[in-house]
Design brief:
Number of strands: 15
Strand order of the largest sheet: 1-2-3-4-5-6-7
Distance between the termini: 22 Å
Mean pLDDT: 90
CATH architecture of the largest domain: 4-Layer Sandwich
Structural class: alpha/beta
Strand content: 15-25%
CATH class of the largest domain: Alpha Beta
Helix content: 40-55%
Low-confidence stretches: 8-17, 30-35
CATH topology of the largest domain: Metallo-beta-lactamase, Chain A
Radius of gyration: 19 Å
Bound molecules: zinc ion
CATH superfamily of the largest domain: Ribonuclease Z/Hydroxyacylglutathione hydrolase-like
Length: 349
């Protein structure tokens, strides 16, 4: 089937979550297995670099607003001294976030892909948008930048210069610090999902609370993003950045994928009591359509297979052995690649 026709059929069929993942999911697995690289590159290029991709995102946005007029999940804000973190359910399974400095009523929006939903939360909270922190260029994370920037003319838009972020005003370097009101963030360069993916850590000392990680599509509860624009070695380094954070850091990911991810985690690591308890809790939350965030980095290290490439049990379950002269990081990257490969197939069953 010609790629363009396939792409158009994706648009016409419509789907329910992140554009890129949807697009790949609609391409028959056998076709992908035979011609994965060229087919993928063309379809992915159409999504990320042309108006067709933007049109697809707008269409998904419209459908999601109709299907979930009050959002796909119910969420709860977390408040600690001087700081309020407000998760906003957008599209079919994305989360945007408002981080509010409650003393100055200044707000930061993380990945505000639905500008209407984000504006409604800004109005409800009675705060002004001072900055947008964008994790990466995919429309389901960056698609609202333009409309919000139009409304809030002095709003700063942060992200990586490598990643074609719409309306970018402040390009960030790895580990750069940024301040909005009393809020202090550190940006980390975490390529792999895209070439310029960044994550943001709110310093908990801004408000006497825990640090908060806004991980975009690098890390999800029990999962990680697809490696669209980077090797397993690159992704492993980015994931190692996450595991170096404080274990008490709260994880606020870009998507509600927890239930599916935990099912997969059980397949690659059947014996894990911590994971079983988390699965039970998440399944109950999802039955009631409640948000499963946040977890913590400490928790994720216990059950997220993408953060457990060092674990012998995982190596055995995957039937992988370290070569005699193989560097440890090279072996871990091979483990990561295999876990990712299995997850991609698992989702398509
Ligand atoms: Zn993405």
């Amino acid at each position: 089937m010609p790629v363009l026709l396939m792409f158009v059929s994706v648009l016409l069929l419509g789907c329910s979550c992140c554009g890129v993942a949807l697009l790949l999911r609609r391409i028959p697995r056998r076709v992908m297995a035979r011609t994965e690289r060229p087919l993928f590159k063309i379809a992915y290029g159409l999504y990320t670099r042309t108006r067709l991709g933007y049109w697809f995102y707008k269409r998904q946005l419209k459908k999601a607003r109709e299907r979930y007029p009050h959002g796909h999940s119910s969420t709860q804000a977390i408040v600690f001294s001087g700081v309020k973190v407000v998760p906003i359910p957008v599209l079919s399974d994305n989360y945007s976030y408002l981080v509010i400095d409650t003393t100055s009523s200044q707000a930061v929006a993380v990945d505000p892909s639905d500008p209407v939903a984000v504006q409604a939360y800004l109005d409800r909270e009675g705060v002004t948008l001072e900055a947008i922190l964008c994790t990466h260029k995919h429309w389901d994370h960056s698609g609202g930048n333009k409309a919000l920037k139009k409304h809030y003319k002095s709003c700063r838009v942060y992200g990586s210069a490598c990643d074609d972020i719409p309306e970018l005003t402040h390009a960030l370097a790895d580990r750069e610090l940024l301040t909005v009101g009393h809020l202090q963030f550190q940006a980390y360069f975490t390529p792999g999902h895209t070439v310029g993916h960044m994550i943001y850590v709110l310093d908990g000392k801004s408000g006497d609370g825990p640090d908060c990680l806004f991980s975009g599509d690098l890390l999800f509860l029990a999962g990680c993003g697809r490696m669209f624009e980077g090797s397993a070695e690159t992704m492993l380094k980015s994931l190692d950045t996450v595991t170096s954070l404080n274990e008490s850091t709260l994880l606020w990911p870009g998507h509600e994928y927890a239930a599916d991810n935990l099912k997969f985690a059980e397949e690659v690591e059947p014996e894990n009591a911590v994971r079983d308890r988390k699965t039970q809790w998440v399944n109950q939350q999802r039955l009631e359509k409640k948000c499963s965030c946040p977890s913590t980095i400490g928790e994720e290290k216990e059950y997220n297979p993408f953060l457990r490439t060092h674990c012998r049990d995982l190596h055995m379950a995957l039937d992988l052995q370290r070569g005699a002269d193989e560097e440890w990081s090279h072996f871990r990257a091979r483990v990561l690649e295999e876990v990712r490969r299995r997850k991609d197939l698992f989702k398509e069953r």
